[in-house]
Write a structure and sequence with these properties.
Blueprint: H1 20-33, E1 49-51, E2 54-56, H2 58-66, H3 73-76
Antiparallel strand pairs: 1-2
Helix pairs in contact: 1-2
Amino acid sequence: MSSSNPNALFITGTDTGVGKTLVSVSLVKALVKHGLRVSVMKPIASGSEHTPAGLRNADALALAEASNVTVPYATTNP
């Protein structure tokens, strides 16, 4: 990205299930495809599952999987 473009995007919506994660994952994949380094964060997540690694949110995991910058899960979804 050039210096006139943002270095961060914030995706928000008014309800659960409106497509925030779908849009975000698509954007992340497109940016990665264009050779950019992309890290993600889902600061607030509704619902989680118990896993051997601890509580995990499916949306946060989908975002992390689309990203090409590896960070601890606690950073992606604090």
